[in-house]
């Protein structure tokens, strides 16, 4: 389990993930769950264990929640050199199925016991405190030396109940024809293969499924034939059938996107049974727009802006979506950047990984806009923004959900704005608590409980606007705590927000990609910072250029970039001063015309650098 640290480490992390994906073997941070089936003989009996490895990083906790529905219990692995991290608390809450009836067995386990840096006894104390368990229940393992692993497998067999069918069986088997097998399998993940279409990863709860069976998705209603069934050992290994209690895959041959979805239930076409409850669709937390870098030619024929690059990007996004069900996107068009896509991500690491995959795997040159979040805006009148909003039923009257800063309504049309808050857990060594309190204060944090957490560490519960969390909070926390603080968060309630749209204006024109939502309290500071940054990045033009920050209906920050001086009089030695002046006058006029007619050409690099770390 790892946490976001500073920017360099973040980049390293992203690269680790991508490298391991390229190698097709997991060596870096896990971002996708990985099912594995293994056999184990214990006291002369053969057991089949269906295991799923899950990611530890907060952005991918959705994977954990999905995997949990497919299993009977879980192993909570705690790094013996790190102890309990903030993320452990979130994962644990999920594994316990908080608020649900069927809480499942959890086996606490301390790993890396071979390492001289392990603090086994202290970590044990933390675990006892957290789980309110007996110290003897905690297992010790090393993935490196293999110590304790056999014991762990045996404890899984002893402590985790064996899978049971969930659907009531027919009164007598004789009543059943070969076709009405009570199959119910939960789709907890899927992937896409060019040749074989969608391959769904399933946990079979009831009945069994064999190759050639005629099946149907209970929710989407799509019928298909099982072209192949098999298990993960850990590679996909074809078999004759999958039966109740097993985890495996079904090759569907379906090539249309949007049909297979996680949480759907696979059942027999001839004997369809009710669907499982399914999963909540994860809400994107971070939004950013992605455009092909080759901006459309200025006067490109209408409707063809972006050309082939756009089509390629569209294809690439479709493919990514087929291996990442939590990723979402839709088409949008922006004046200066042409046609692109508004994409929703589960967090910043998710965003970085998707955009990097687009570049590396699909060889696309992209412009990615500054990430932003969703606001719910209650309008004064019914005048809807021109785009970039969603209207959901059953929400506040006259309200729209804005997920594109450029479309955030003008202040005059806003009654109230609501924004998402996050519930934050921080675990830190006690000596950093003072400094952390200061940055919490700077980020509008509402400090709740603080609790001593054994071994001179402290847990702090905080509520904070998501907007503030995104304002470099992770990096700041990591640096004030010398890297020892860890954070985990979940999205909480919507609260009223005091925010406004800040536009950047270049030569009198708003550049939509640079618009952002900022706290009204910080609007001046933010405007000044953005204008200065843009001024430092923009190449000098032939003419004088104004860069302005505009918010609350007025210009609040402004810089002028002087034009490049090309001395038109240079070739004239001495001579008549009035002739020189005449020439300069002429040049001035020419520049004015350029300014009026010519649009400022913003190099793509400037977009990228403006986006990179807002601070
Ligand atoms: N000394 C020692 N190092 C280990 C052990 N297990 C894992 N490591 C190292 O710890 C690092 C992280 O291991 P992973 O298995 O990727 O950890 P993880 O919990 O799966 O991480 P996420 O997938 O990001 O949640 C790697 O560099 C491993 O080589 C162990 O038992 N002992
Ligand atoms: Mg892992």
Describe the protein:
This protein has 615 residues and is an alpha+beta fold. The protein has 13 helices and 31 strands. The strands form seven sheets. The chain has an eight-stranded antiparallel sheet, with no helix packed on it. Strands 20, 21, 22, 23, 24, 25 and 26 form a seven-stranded antiparallel sheet that branches. Strand 30 and strand 31 (554-561) form a beta hairpin. The two termini are 28 Å apart. The structure holds guanosine-5'-triphosphate and magnesium ion. The site of magnesium ion has 2 residues, from loops. Residues 30, 53 line the site of magnesium ion.
Largest sheet: 8 strands, antiparallel
Q: Could you tell me the number of beta strands?
A: 31
Distance between the termini: 28 Å
Output the radius of gyration: 29 Å
Q: Average pLDDT across residues?
A: 83
Tally of separate helices: 13
Q: Hetero groups bound?
A: guanosine-5'-triphosphate, magnesium ion
Helix content: 10-25%
Unreliable spans are 1-6, 296-306, 593-598
Content of β-strand: 25-35%
